[in-house]
């Protein structure tokens, strides 16, 4: 693994196999569509979502062994995640992703949208071939939630009345739903009880919310070369996140910059500076920590005898991505 290699030896082989399979699963007859889809996976990523699925599979499966269905679910989840990224980049007009040019920058917006659609279609086909109706229902809902999240975000751009509750709900639709549903689906494939399935759904939900909050903090605190995309992208697009919402409570001066939609060239940098001078970032970190703790408590309290140390380590990694 990219973030704690020695700690994840138990699934290193599975992740390597996943990387190979992803290239095979995106086969397309049209060369440009294939090149666009292949570029998405060549940009790397930490494979956090597949890692979660594989680790939960090892905890929940009766023989503690990852089944082929678990492996395929991990691959499907990564394809869905990647498809959502290419559509996000088009909507946000992002130039870079993970330090490389975005698909619509290399090709065209039309090709990028089609590449995203193609990946969603491929994931649906492989999902259907799992031959598990309950898993199909659970994961299919994610794609609907993605669309809901994008619509909600689009309707609240530059909306100074957005509440923390609105932000959390939007974050669920955009990020947490995939993690929550894939964690639940993993338990389904392990033939776990409804109670266990729901535990892992709630675990994934809190983990996903923490992940999104940390991402939103990094959008403000990280340098562009470390972030892999321009810093302050959320602000520029009028997508208001936890650090800004908390900062607004402390410094009303931000309202003027928002109302003029960062009209002047230096307004984004000025806004970031003001946010850093408030307790907004620390409050957002505290909020993310609360969600991580809620997630870890479920694992630690209910499944402490199931070799959950690595899963807890991965959960904690999410909150420590500042380092």
Structure characterization notes:
Belongs to the FPP/GGPP synthase family. It holds the Pfam family polyprenyl_synt. InterPro entries: Isoprenoid_synthase_dom_sf, Polyprenyl_synt, Polyprenyl_synt_CS. This is Prenyl transferase. This protein is an all-alpha fold and 323 residues long. The protein has one domain (5-319): Farnesyl Diphosphate Synthase (Orthogonal Bundle), CATH 1.10.600. Helix content is 73%, strand content 1%. The protein contains 16 helices and two strands. A two-stranded antiparallel sheet has the order 1-2. It is globular and about 60 Å long. The chain starts with 8 loop residues before the first helix and ends with a helix. Residues 1-6 have low confidence and may be disordered.
The structural class is mainly alpha
Number of structural units classed as domains: 1
CATH superfamily: Farnesyl Diphosphate Synthase
Q: What would CATH call the architecture?
A: Orthogonal Bundle
Task: Classify the beta-strand content into a percent band.
Answer: under 5%
Shape assignment = globular
End-to-end gap: 17 Å
Return residue spans where pLDDT drops below 50 for at least 5 consecutive residues. 1-6
- Kindly report the CATH topology: Farnesyl Diphosphate Synthase
Succession of helices and strands: HHHHEEHHHHHHHHHHHH
Overall mean pLDDT: 87
Helix content: over 70%
Strand order of the largest sheet: 1-2
What's the main sheet like?
2 strands, antiparallel
In angstroms, what is the radius of gyration?
20 Å
Q: Could you give the count of β-strands?
A: 2
Assigned CATH class: Mainly Alpha
Q: Number of DSSP helices?
A: 16
Cofactor: Mg(2+)
Keywords: Isoprene biosynthesis, Magnesium, Metal-binding, Plastid, Transferase
Family: Belongs to the FPP/GGPP synthase family.
Organism: Cumathamnion serrulatum
């Amino acid at each position: 693994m990219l973030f704690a290699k020695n700690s994840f030896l138990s699934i290193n082989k599975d992740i390597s196999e996943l990387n190979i399979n992803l290239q095979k699963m995106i086969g397309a007859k049209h060369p440009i569509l294939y090149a666009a889809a292949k570029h998405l996976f060549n940009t790397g990523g930490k494979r956090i979502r597949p890692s979660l699925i594989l680790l939960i599979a090892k905890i929940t499966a009766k023989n503690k062994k990852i089944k082929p269905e678990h492996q395929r679910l991990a691959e499907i989840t990564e394809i869905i995640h990647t498809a959502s990224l290419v559509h996000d980049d088009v909507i946000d007009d992002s130039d870079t992703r993970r330090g490389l040019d975005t698909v619509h920058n290399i090709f065209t917006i039309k090709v990028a949208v089609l590449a995203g659609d193609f990946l969603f279609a491929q994931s649906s086909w492989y999902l259907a071939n799992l031959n598990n109706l309950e898993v199909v229902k659970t994961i299919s809902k994610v794609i609907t939630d993605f669309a809901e999240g994008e619509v909600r975000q689009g309707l609240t751009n530059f909306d100074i009345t957005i509440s923390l509750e609105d932000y959390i709900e939007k974050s669920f639709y955009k990020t947490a739903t995939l993690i929550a549903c894939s964690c639940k689906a993993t338990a389904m494939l392990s033939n776990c009880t409804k109670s266990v399935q729901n535990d892992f759904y709630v675990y994934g939900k809190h983990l996903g919310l923490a992940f999104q909050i940390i991402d939103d903090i990094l959008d403000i605190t990280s340098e562009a070369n470390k972030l892999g995309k321009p810093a302050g992208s959320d602000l520029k697009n009028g997508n208001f996140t936890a650090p800004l919402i908390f900062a607004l409570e402390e410094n009303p001066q931000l309202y003027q910059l928002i109302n003029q939609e960062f009209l002047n060239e230096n307004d984004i940098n000025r806004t970031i500076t003001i946010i850093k001078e408030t307790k907004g970032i620390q409050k957002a970190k505290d909020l993310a920590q609360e969600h991580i703790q809620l997630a870890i408590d479920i694992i630690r309290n209910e499944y402490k005898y199931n070799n959950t140390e690595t899963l807890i380590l991965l959960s904690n990694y999410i909150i420590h991505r500042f380092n």
